[in-house]
């Protein structure tokens, strides 16, 4: 105790240290007491009657009271940097340049800045002091309870503690000790305190916040010691309770497990509760290795503009908003030292240049990792584990544990009770009739090959099958959990026997070298002990291999590799190609002689070399041998600072991931993308998730089958398992049925009987009476409907008349009882032919101002009747076999040898088209395809490339001018000018413009006509855009809705709004009840998937369109190549993937047309080949 008091006294006496780390001593004791007055207990606080007399307890009380006074002035890092940032200390490059003199170089006539040696020396000295100050501040933040819970801000604090993950007794004890330290060191200095613990249920200490005194602190300590573990982590329920306590100004959330609710639900609720209220949320992730928990709490704190602190007893996932701010300032100081070296190296000669280089080298060697928290025993020997079973990729694992391997595929289960529908042609009715047995005894179900089968539904069997599917889903969830922990969270599953690890140690990874080293440690401990051979190659500018070639994976070698990894230093760029060549040409020089070989790349950014170059080399190297390249992408999800180190090639995280996916695909490897918040994407996990979705889909289909069976009554309209096209066909037939018939589905026989019943007088007709004869035996066949004389008479008439079909036709037959005759009359307004002629297409040359949805409603392939399957294949084209009883086998029809056959979606069909007809079809579909491509080029030209097509006559264009738009404002201004003249002025659109950031600013307060004068004025207003602040979309939309006669809004933004997305959608829904206004959204350079999803939802909800300007250059190039190089090759060139509604629909229709064109040419070649073969056979 005495040692602690002495240590605290030393710190309290060091005024300089206290002031620099954020504690001010000038206004505490000195201002309240005369300089010579002795310090007494009564000076600290009025006697509350609880003072004790024992000397040790008095010392403790003095120490606590002194810390209480000092802590009142403790500042958060954000507040502290207001006085000690480089900008505040005037230590930026701008300040250094202002201290120099501008001179004119007599040789080059260029203005230069002259600085004295003393000025530069003094500036570097102050920079060194700033670096040391930041280091001390970080050390102070990593002491005592601040290391576990961070620095607690506010005076009226609500403490919300999660006890759901404390079932392990030692962990609960450690947690209670840390909470007691937090109370003694930080919470005891606050004014009010409110305590709440939660799991599935809530437990609070008091009804309302209490003023802090000795009694309250004693009750709080007892409450902590009595904490008991609970069930789930119902964070939303805890937030609902604690946010109702209005007295609090700070809320500390301490969570040790993954919340039961998603981030969207929690963030939306907290944002709505905090509107108009100043409440700081401090989220603490306590000793939790679940990536989902880290992501939810960290993102929740960022969304509500709070602070976060992540603590791990193992030191694996340490993260803190306070420490991050200091590290950023530290990095700026180091970069400034390097900048001074580069900029002013030529200005001075001799010793100064040398001295500057020495100083720069000295501080360049001091990387942030030297004082970042390291995991316990980080530099100690490895604790090597032997895996209990050989590792497998998820694809290999599913070969024995997948639904198909377990015979749990839905079609495998239904196959014994599934039957193909029976269809036969009835000559009398002149049509194909299907069996209707399934309507009473079975359900129609669409099979995996697109055909429809009749399935007998057995509910008990399906219930048991659903239980087995649920069991498999739980197994898949455990597999995903296993893949998401320990070293597999970073590296995935290392499955090969011969492994080379490629580690990126470029200079941009300086702040993450501890992460990289720890990742290597986990891999060496957990997954490398059962391998045959391994090696490690680190690369920056230069290649640093651990060993000259592969070595056996023995414990001694693993320990040596770890000691080598601890000495790695980050420098240079990412020369990935050289490292790859070194591994292939040295370590895998005999790759053709071995199996199970893999390279695992751990990197944080895109390589220096072009993606196409790397992909081509990898594809050539890995072809023909058992060698794969797997990529583990560690994404820090932070942009490169403008004053920081810029790599040789820069790409944002999404672009980097796309590039490495292409490389991995060329190498037949696996892609694994992770970050501090968890796993973003993993091929191994995606395959398991796909299998889970398949199981859930099968279970839902089973439920629908059982539900449909239960709900079936005597008459059922549409079967949910029949494809949509078949359902429409049934409805169409239902409408054509005569309403006077009582039966819902009459047969041809009953229809004929009713016809005769209603037409007794017509039976006197000679033609009918001539046919009334009784057959001599039961086996006698029904005679033809017309006599031979009638046939000859009709034949003679056909010779003299044109080929016009009769308006009526009659079929007569005998009934099964008596001498009654049935007759069926049919009226054919048009020729009923199976084969359809190829229509001649005429398309407009002038572009129509409409959406792609409207345009395709008139000019789609279906609307133009150019769908190849509908033209070529009718019901008579299906190849059928019938059973011949005398032969006891199925026999094909005679015409099967006349026409060539082709298999379409598993069904054999006969081709009845001629090559000339297919050639005509190809000409028409090629004409349509060229028109599609021309419209795509039109959509990608001018202002439509960025803004899309302006459709309405009264619009307002909303432009995001927040701080993130600063790099893009020149381009947006240029494109907006083009929009004003090209679309608004040309089409005489009434318009207004509105910019939004933290506030909104409109060009006019109403819509104006697009005249030359107003357009010039609008262009001038646009040119004055300045980027600043946040993205307040809701305020801008509310302002735009106030304009009179507005029809549509066009909103351009580059990111997610600051307001809750659900709140915006709800508010817009309320506003649209008064005014039916469409909102068209435009995503500009936005890689945030959630932001884009919000824009899509906003447009869809209001009847607007979503537009994304990415891929325009590639789209123009692809369209040009198609028109110049040909259209029948659907592989190359190809349009990029457009996310915007207009381009997406049009490119999909163009791809469909290309597919039909290719099929038509293939079928034409098939028929021509078949005809040649038939001629050759006829010769013999």
From TrEMBL:
Spans annotated as Disordered: 782-802
SMART domains in alphabetical order: VWA
Ranges where the VWFA domain occurs: 954-1127
PROSITE patterns named among the record's database cross-references: VWFA
Database matches in InterPro entries: VWF_A (IPR002035), vWFA_dom_sf (IPR036465)
Pfam families, A to Z: VWA_3 (PF13768)
Identification of the protein by name: von Willebrand factor A domain-containing protein 3A
Source organism of this protein record: Apteryx mantelli
């Amino acid at each position: 105790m005495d040692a602690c008091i002495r240590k605290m006294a030393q710190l309290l006496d060091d005024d300089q240290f206290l002031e620099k780390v954020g504690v001010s001593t000038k206004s505490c004791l000195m201002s309240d007491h005369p300089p010579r007055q002795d310090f007494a207990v009564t000076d600290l606080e009025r006697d509350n009657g609880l003072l004790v007399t024992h000397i040790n307890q008095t010392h403790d009380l003095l120490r606590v009271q002194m810390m209480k006074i000092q802590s009142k002035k403790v500042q958060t890092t954000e507040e502290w940097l207001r006085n000690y940032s480089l900008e505040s200390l005037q230590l930026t490059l701008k300040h250094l340049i202002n201290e120099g003199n501008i001179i004119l170089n007599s040789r080059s006539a260029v203005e230069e800045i002259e600085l004295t040696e003393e000025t530069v020396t003094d500036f570097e000295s102050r920079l060194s002091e700033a670096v040391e100050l930041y280091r001390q501040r970080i050390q102070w933040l990593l002491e005592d309870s601040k290391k576990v819970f961070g620095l607690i801000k506010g005076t009226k604090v609500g403490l919300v503690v999660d006890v759901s993950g404390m079932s392990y007794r030692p962990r609960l004890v450690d947690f209670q000790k840390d909470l007691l330290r937090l109370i003694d060191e930080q919470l005891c200095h606050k004014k009010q305190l409110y305590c709440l613990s939660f799991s599935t249920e809530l437990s609070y200490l008091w009804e309302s916040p209490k003023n802090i005194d000795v009694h309250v602190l004693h009750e709080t300590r007892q409450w902590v010691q009595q904490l008991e573990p609970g069930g789930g982590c119902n964070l939303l329920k805890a937030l609902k309770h604690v946010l109702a306590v209005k007295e609090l100004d700070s809320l500390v959330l301490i969570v040790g497990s993954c919340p039961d609710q998603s981030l969207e639900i929690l963030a939306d609720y907290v944002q709505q509760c905090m509107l108009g209220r100043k409440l700081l949320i401090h989220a603490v992730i306590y000793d939790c290795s679940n990536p989902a928990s880290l992501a939810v709490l960290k993102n929740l704190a960022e969304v509500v503009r709070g602070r976060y602190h992540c603590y791990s007893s193992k030191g694996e996932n340490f993260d803190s908003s306070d420490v991050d701010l200091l590290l950023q300032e530290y990095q700026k100081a180091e970069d400034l030292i390097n900048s001074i070296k580069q900029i002013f190296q030529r200005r001075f000669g001799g010793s100064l240049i040398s001295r500057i280089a020495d100083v720069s080298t000295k501080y360049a060697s001091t990387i942030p990792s030297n004082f970042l928290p390291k995991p316990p025993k980080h530099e100690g020997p490895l604790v090597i584990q032997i895996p209990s079973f050989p590792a497998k990729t998820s694809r290999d694992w599913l070969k024995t544990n997948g639904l198909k391997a377990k015979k749990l595929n839905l079609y495998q289960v239904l196959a014994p009770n599934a039957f193909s529908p029976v269809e036969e042609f009835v000559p009398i009715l002149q049509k194909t009739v299907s069996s209707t047995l399934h309507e009473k005894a079975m359900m129609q179900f669409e099979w995996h090959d697109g055909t429809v089968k009749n399935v007998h539904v057995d509910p008990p069997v399906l219930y048991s099958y659903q239980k087995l599917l649920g069991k498999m889903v739980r197994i898949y969830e455990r597999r995903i959990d296993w893949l998401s922990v320990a070293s597999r969270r970073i590296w995935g599953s290392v499955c090969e026997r011969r492994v080379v690890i490629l580690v990126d140690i470029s200079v941009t990874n300086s702040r993450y070298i501890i992460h990289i080293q720890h990742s290597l440690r986990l891999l060496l401990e957990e997954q490398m002990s059962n391998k045959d051979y391994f090696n490690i190659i680190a690369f920056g500018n230069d290649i640093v291999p651990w060993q000259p070639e592969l070595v056996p994976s023995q414990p001694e070698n693993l320990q040596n590799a770890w000691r080598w990894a601890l000495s790695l230093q980050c420098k240079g760029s990412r020369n990935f190609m050289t490292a790859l060549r070194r591994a292939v040409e040295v370590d895998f020089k005999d790759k053709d002689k071995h199996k199970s070989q893999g390279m695992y790349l751990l990197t944080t950014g895109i390589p220096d070399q072009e993606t196409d170059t790397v992909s081509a080399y990898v594809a050539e190297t890995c072809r023909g041998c058992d060698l794969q390249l797997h990529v583990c992408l560690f994404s820090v999800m932070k942009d490169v600072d403008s004053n920081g180190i810029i790599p040789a090639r820069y790409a944002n995280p999404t672009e980097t991931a796309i590039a490495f996916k292409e490389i991995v695909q060329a190498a037949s490897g696996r892609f694994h993308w992770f970050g501090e918040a968890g796993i973003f994407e993993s091929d191994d996990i995606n395959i398991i998730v796909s299998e889970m979705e398949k199981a859930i889909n099968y279970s839902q289909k089973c439920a629908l089958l059982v539900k449909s069976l239960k709900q079936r009554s005597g008459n059922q309209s549409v079967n949910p398992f029949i494809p949509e096209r078949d359902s429409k066909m049934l409805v169409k037939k239902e409408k054509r049925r005569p309403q006077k018939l009582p039966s819902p589905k009459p047969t041809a026989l009953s229809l004929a009987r009713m016809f005769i019943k209603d037409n007794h007088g017509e039976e006197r007709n000679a033609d009918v009476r001539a046919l009334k004869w009784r057959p001599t035996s039961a086996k006698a066949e029904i005679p033809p409907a017309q006599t031979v004389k009638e046939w000859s008479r009709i034949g003679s008439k056909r010779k003299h008349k044109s080929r016009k079909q009769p308006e009526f036709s009659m079929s007569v037959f005998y009934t099964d009882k008596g001498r009654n005759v049935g007759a069926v009359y049919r009226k054919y307004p048009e020729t009923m032919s199976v084969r359809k002629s190829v229509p001649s297409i005429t398309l407009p040359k002038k572009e129509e101002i409409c959406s792609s949805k409207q345009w395709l409603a008139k000019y789609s392939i279906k609307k133009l009747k150019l769908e190849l399957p509908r033209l070529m294949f009718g019901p008579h084209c299906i190849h059928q076999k019938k059973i011949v009883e005398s032969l006891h086998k199925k026999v094909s029809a005679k015409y099967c040898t006349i026409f060539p056959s082709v298999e379409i979606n598993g069904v054999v069909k006969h081709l009845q088209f001629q090559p000339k007809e297919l050639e005509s079809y190809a000409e028409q579909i090629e004409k349509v395809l060229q028109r599609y491509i021309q419209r795509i080029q039109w959509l990608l030209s001018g202002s439509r490339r960025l803004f899309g097509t302006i459709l309405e006559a009264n619009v307002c264009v909303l432009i995001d001018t927040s701080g993130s738009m600063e790099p893009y404002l020149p381009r947006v201004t240029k494109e907006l000018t083009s929009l004003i003249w090209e679309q608004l002025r040309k089409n005489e659109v009434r318009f207004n413009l509105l910019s939004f950031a933290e506030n909104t600013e409109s060009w006019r307060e109403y819509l104006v006509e697009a005249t030359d004068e107003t357009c010039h004025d609008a262009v001038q207003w646009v040119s004055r855009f300045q980027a600043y602040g946040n993205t307040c979309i809701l305020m801008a939309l509310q302002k735009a809705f106030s304009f009179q006669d507005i029809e549509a809004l066009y909103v351009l933004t580059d990111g997610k709004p600051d307001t809750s997305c659900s709140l915006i959608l709800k508010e817009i829904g309320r506003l649209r009840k008064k005014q039916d206004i469409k909102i068209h959204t435009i995503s500009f350079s936005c890689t945030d998937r959630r932001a884009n999803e919000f824009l899509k939802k906003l447009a869809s909800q209001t009847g607007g369109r979503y537009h994304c300007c990415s891929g325009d250059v590639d789209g123009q190039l692809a369209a040009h190549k198609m028109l110049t190089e040909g259209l029948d090759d659907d592989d190359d060139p190809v349009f990029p993937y457009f996310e915007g509604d207009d381009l997406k629909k049009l490119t999909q229709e163009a791809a469909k047309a290309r597919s039909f064109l290719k099929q038509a040419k293939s079928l034409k070649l098939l028929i021509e080949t078949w005809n040649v073969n038939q001629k050759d056979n006829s010769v013999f």
